[in-house]
Amino acid sequence: MIELKNVSKSYRTDTIETLALQNLNLSVPAGEFLSIMGPSGCGKSTLLNIMGLIDEPSTGSVILADQEITNYNGTQIAKFRNEQLGFIFQSFHLINDLSVVDNVELPLLYRNISGKERRRMALEALAHVTLSNRAGHFPNQLSGGQKQRVAIARAIVGQPNIILADEPTGNLDSRMGDEIMDILLRLNAELGTTIVMVTHDDRMARKTHRLIRLSDGERVS
Amino acid sequence: MFRHLLKLMWNKRRANSMIFLEILLAFIVLFGVYAFIFYNLNRYSSPLGFNYANSMGVRMDLNDDLDSLGVLAAQERIRQDLLAMPNIEAVTWVGPVNPFGGSTWQTGSMVRGQHILTQMMFVDEHFANTAEVDMLEGRWFDESDLKGKYLPMVVNREFKERYYPNVTTLVDSIIDLDGEHKIVGVTSDFKYKSNFAENFPLSFFAQPERLAQDDPFEMLIVRFTPGTLAEIEEPVYNLLVGHTKNTDVVIWDMAKDRIKSNRNIVLPMIILIVISGFLLINIALGLFGVLFTQINRRRAEIGLRKAMGATNGQVTGQFVGEMLIVTGMALVLGAFFAVQVPFLELLPIDGKYFYYGIVGAILTILFIVVLCSLLPSRQAAALQPAEVLHEE
What we know:
Chain B: Residues 273-385 form the ABC3 transporter permease C-terminal domain. The structure holds two protein chains of two kinds. Chain A is built from seven helices and ten strands. Chain A is an alpha/beta fold. In chain A, strands 6-7-8-3-9-10 form a six-stranded mixed β-sheet. Chain A has a four-stranded antiparallel β-sheet with strand order 2-1-4-5, with helices on one face. In chain A, a hairpin with a 4-residue loop joins strand 1 (2-12) and strand 2. In chain A, helix 5 packs parallel to helix 6. Chain A is globular, with a radius of gyration of 17 Å. The radius of gyration of chain B is 31 Å and the shape is elongated. The two termini of chain B are 27 Å apart. In chain B, 36% of the residues are buried. Classes of the chains: A alpha/beta, B alpha+beta. The interface between A and B is medium-sized, with 29 and 26 residues.
């Protein structure tokens, strides 16, 4: 499902070159729930961004859903992201000027889907995260846990094969964090969605199928 | 996508209210300016109906002691003496209302059940030849007409079309307008005030009617060979001073007079265009400012949309689209107000100029908005999602 071969990523300024990832190899089979841990600045988010095609590796290749992505152009990458990937962020990234259901519909706007069908799919996604009763609310009327559930609904509304979650429980208290984790586990179990999650929380990571650790841009376990 | 943007802009209506107001005001000003310009350009495009080039205007005092016959005789002597000079092609005496002179006379009368309102010019029988007036039907009056039962009269096309649209020919018609007159000819368009003057019904009458009021013509139009004004000006002046025995003779170039008379419209038009230009620059800067601020505030949203699958083109289209929606709303409201002007006939001007004004203002504002939205929107599209999503 996800395969990274010899992926390296470096950031260059005028005076210094920072190596964020070094010759990283990783294979994530379909349906796996993988968590990535490591200290701040070790390259976890960079790795997730490269898997999510919102950043490019400096060297190496990325294969997602059996497709070699390295040579895709901007439009092809955008289409792939839209159809195959779902994102969940630590700070939710909801659009405050849109209602909950409109936020959930967002990925579907970039597909050729009628407004009626979009609405149906968005409400279905909200039902998955038991937030149907909040469809007409605005993000600033929700708690942190509810916001993250909206973000999960947005991630799954397009029925992607892969969900990439960047510290999804990082801004939540432990009770809400558990709630979110339960939803992700349920999605993985019921829909077979492959999930890659970056986390600092060892307790959350232990609930997933597999855990890898990064340090200074290298995989250490 | 349109509904999505509409919803987004509606939910941001407070934030967009200032730009909405700015565009609405700009539309109203531009609408007025365009309507004014279109209206005057249309007037300018219709011909004057006479030749002013290579002509000089002359104002002089005739001897007050002369009776009517004496005036006519003196005028004819002066005319013949001028015609005898080299490079002078034609000469005519005209009354106080004359081309580019700034004076207007009007008369109105009920004629067979309809109220006829017409401007008046008193000229002699040589006017058509000297000013090269274009005749639509009939002819200019001559000496024989002055001895007939009815006083002669010539009208312009506007007179005929406004008051007698269904009459095949007005020639030989008798009309009671300050006395019974016989129409001997119809000119094509004739506007004597300026190029921007309205095409208004106009009637030409002969000098005897003014002589009866002890008001003889004291102005001449002298047509000369092209390029000879400088060399004939002084001899003409000397000749006329010799005739009047005083130096109160004023000579001017009618071509310059025309330019001066047009200034009354051209100057406000230029001022309005400059004001509109500043207004458009103001809108452009406002849009730039608003968009740059919005894009800075919405970097995460842009990153999110790109992460969700939006292409660069779709992000550009979104921001241009948002601006177009706010603009569209302001333009619809502005157009609603603007349409009331012709609809309720608030001004005595043909409604089509207001509709042209609406279309012109809409197109100009849309052009400016698209132009000013493109650069910031492209910058927004170029943002890297990995970078901006990491910022929060």
